[in-house]
Amino acid sequence: MSDPVSLVTAEAAIAVRDSATLGEGSLWDADRRVLYWVDIAARTLHTFDPATGENTSVSTTEQVTTVVPVTDNEVLAGMETCVARLNPTTGEVYERYPLEHDIPENRCNDGKCDPQGRFWIGTMSTVKRSGTASVYRMNHDYTIERVFGGVTTSNGIVWNADQTRMYYIDTPTRRIDSFAYDAESGAVDQRETLVEVPEELGKPDGMSIDSEGRLWVAMFYGACVTVWDSQTGAFLEKIDVPAKNVTSVAFGGDTMNTLYVTTATVGMSDADRERYPDAGCLFSFETTVTGTAPHRFGA
Asked: Are 39 and 46 in contact (CB under 8 A)?
């Protein structure tokens, strides 16, 4: 039997040369044709334009962990103490919606909009306290509902094309979980383990889904992106990245076949830095697949 054909056509290219402490939160804005990504530790929101190669940055008043587009001059951002509406060019905050103010050691982490344009945002314990974080859903009227708890480090979240399943990662569990998803109400139930990620691959972090339903997962400590079948949980491919800490993945570009990958330098030893001198950069891969376009809030 012949080996499976690789889903990427070349090794990683550096899209943005940086030394981000905690590069994260990559997400393509199909209307503006730019990629948002963040450096959480540096309180910085980046906007990368692949057409010009320009990467612009703006400082934020708190750590910013992920953003989703609302309009051309507004995004929703997960931050340390709230979800905020802000201008991605100036960093100006228009409105704050407090989240877990009663748990000061928690902050927002990864998040995306579901196909109905509701913003799902998870939190994490900054002191690694198990089970104290949660996943929330912000509705179109900006009200926030807690969907489920018992979380430690909320990360990747995506939905399948027919809007019947939601896939989710709580990093310390080393699992990709699958939920039954009700598109109309946004309710989830019937949680089950789809993938138990082997320790040697690293820790599952951010996640994206392609048009064929394959799950692309950034592997923290793993120097790679892994690809999984969302129906069977089968392991399909390991894509090497020249950085130890791989944090998020997002499809983008005019034809949605460029995979953008954020990385981090946090926690690296001197030996790690010597082995991975490009850690902290934003990388890109050209793929043989088409990614799914992310959803705008309220759309």
From this structure: yes
Q: Indicate whether 166 belongs to any domain.
A: yes
Give whole-number Cα distances, 265 to 105, 183, 244, 261, in Å. 22, 38, 8, 14
For residue 193, what is the domain's CATH number? 2.120.10.30
Q: Quick one: tokens of 126?
A: 């900054």
Whether the full predicted model's pTM is greater than 0.85, yes or no, is yes
Work out whether strand 224-229 and strand 214-220 pair parallel, antiparallel, or are unpaired.
antiparallel
CA-derived radius of gyration, the chain: 17
pLDDT in tens, 223-279: 999 999 999 999 999 999 999 999 999 999 999 999 999 999 999 999 999 999 999
Burial (Cβ within 10 Å: 0-12, 13-18, ≥19) of residue 119: buried
Q: Which two tokens stand for residue 236?
A: 């399909």
pLDDT tens-place string over residues 25-81: 999 999 999 999 999 999 999 999 999 999 999 999 999 999 999 998 999 999 999
- The count of structural domains within the chain is 1
Domain that holds residue 83: 13-286
Is residue 33 in a domain?
yes
Q: Side chain identity at 106, as an amino acid letter?
A: N
Q: Phi/psi class of residue 156: alpha, beta or left (left: φ > 0; alpha: ψ in -120 to 50)? A: beta
- Report d(CA 296, CA 299) in Å as an integer: 5
Burial class, 30, CB count within 10 angstroms (exposed 0-12 / middle 13-18 / buried 19+):
middle
Q: Which residues 6+ apart lie within 8 Å of 48 measured at CB?
A: 15, 16, 34, 35, 36, 37, 54, 55, 260, 282
